[in-house]
Specification:
Blueprint: H1 30-37, H2 40-43, H3 59-72, H4 75-83, H5 85-91, H6 94-100, H7 152-166, H8 168-177, H9 188-196, H10 199-215, H11 219-236, H12 259-270, H13 272-285, H14 295-311, H15 313-327, H16 339-342, H17 345-380, E1 397-400, E2 405-408
Antiparallel strand pairs: 1-2
Helix pairs in contact: 3-5, 3-11, 3-13, 3-17, 5-11, 7-9, 10-11, 10-14, 10-17, 11-17, 12-13, 12-17, 15-17
Bound molecules: zinc ion.
Length: 419
């Protein structure tokens, strides 16, 4: 989330350091700053089993996505969600705060709890899946790149077999790469599985929770879970949530390191008007409702989406490399604190020219996918009728992690303000 400092260039990332002349002050993107400041470095060491950290699209992007989905949702559930549009807008980024601001989560009102019960760093792995990780990559279709649909148990079994095969060597390697790990061989398969990411299963499980809430006619919970589901759906459409090289850290151009925040937050926040216009245009155009599918169809679609996301990463990295080389010929290192000079508005214009369309496409598609899954839940629940004009009584609040406090959220201002 960004509390909109005027000079703030979102997505600037303290990833690459050294030499670039004069000083320029730029604040790192909030999401990224949290990463550096908190357990990301602990949880995601240098894994061979491909962790991509559970960064968010960013509060602005998740908010725009949720609002667009609400606007597109047909039928009585659409009416219900529109009556609570600000609620979805405000809390669409909450799942990232379950791991990012664990100290503040217990202070939020009842009704905003993670359905899994998880608060803290274990939640982070639920926002990504490394499709190209060591154990998943060999399973992908060589032509389409699709990772086959797996249940959690099937995926866990891969890690169990790996540990059975490698024994103590697997444990030593994992411990060396993850200093936080205190478990033994017995717990290792689960730890490796969680580190590789749980996003596809979490998405499907959240859909099941939403279905149950609708079936029970618990509409406050249903609206909340629709919000949560749109968050995880958004993450499945974010390319850097699906790869080992989740931050460009393995790219030959060291300036590419830090691309994660620049793509999914920086582009959106620097060109918010363009994103808003694009989402609105699609919403106005309407179009035929997506066909609903059976239970297998949902998992297949989620796995297809993460595989597609993964396939977009190489072009994204190379195009940022191009944008950086065009903007800063010959520069390969940046002095600490001078991100603003490298990732400045000219760079962002160049990066947007190359990747803006793809970024808008993914956000737009994730709004459609959210609508689709909300409709699936409603159909599975037996099309229950929500009460007309139902308003959730939970107040709109924003986590101000910089000041470690909770502040009122003003939907007219959104996420861009100083609390
Ligand atoms: Zn997330």
């Amino acid at each position: 989330m960004s509390f909109g400092q005027k000079d703030h260039i979102p997505g600037n990332v303290e990833g690459t350091v050294v030499r670039m002349g004069t000083t320029a002050h730029s604040k790192p993107h909030a999401c990224w700053a949290r990463l550096l400041g908190t357990a990301i470095l602990v949880w995601f060491g240098l894994a061979a089993i491909a962790p991509a950290p559970g960064w968010c699209w960013g509060a602005v992007a998740h908010g725009l996505l949720a609002r667009a989905a609400v606007d597109r949702m047909p039928g009585p559930v659409g009416d219900l969600l529109r009556a609570n549009r600000d609620f979805l807008y405000c809390y669409s980024v909450l799942p990232d705060q379950w791991w990012g601001s664990p100290d503040l989560i217990p202070k939020l009102p009842r009704g905003l709890e993670n359905p899994s019960g998880i608060i803290g760093i274990r939640e982070q792995g639920r926002h990504h899946v490394a499709v190209d990780g060591d154990l998943y990559a060999p399973l992908r279709d060589p032509r389409s790149g699709l990772l086959p649909v797996m249940t959690r148990d099937q995926a866990r079994l891969l890690f169990k077999k790996h540990v059975d095969r490698e024994g103590r060597a697997a444990l030593d390697r994992f411990r060396a790469e993850n200093k936080w790990y205190k478990g033994g061989l017995k717990e290792l398969p689960q730890a490796m599985f969680e580190k590789a990411g749980e996003l596809p299963w979490v998405t499907v499980e959240t859909l099941d929770e939403l279905t149950r809430a609708m079936k029970a006619n618990d509409w406050s919970r249903a609206a909340f879970l629709a919000t949560v589901l749109s968050h995880y759906v958004g993450d499945t459409y974010t390319p850097l949530h699906t790869v080992h090289n989740y931050n460009g850290q393995l790219h030959p151009n060291p300036l590419v390191k830090g691309i994660h925040g620049r793509w999914e937050s920086g582009l959106v926040e620097n060109f918010e008007d363009r994103f808003v216009a694009r989402l609105a245009k699609t919403t106005r155009a309407g179009g035929p409702p997506a066909a609903l599918d059976g239970p297998e169809g949902v998992a297949a679609q989620v796995f297809r989406t993460v595989s597609e996301s993964c396939s977009l990463v190489d072009a994204m990295l190379d195009q940022e490399d191009e944008a950086l080389k065009a903007r800063h010929p010959g520069v390969t290192v940046v002095e600490k604190g001078q991100w603003g000079q490298i990732y400045d508005s000219v760079y962002y214009a160049s990066f947007f020219e190359r990747q803006g369309q793809s970024c808008m496409d993914r956000l737009d598609a994730s709004a459609d996918a959210s609508v689709w899954l909300w409709r699936v839940a409603w159909e599975r629940a037996g099309r229950p009728e929500p009460p007309r004009g139902f308003k959730i009584s939970i107040p709109l609040l924003l986590i101000d992690w910089r000041n470690n406090t909770i502040v009122p959220f003003d939907p007219n201002v959104g996420f861009r303000r100083d609390p």
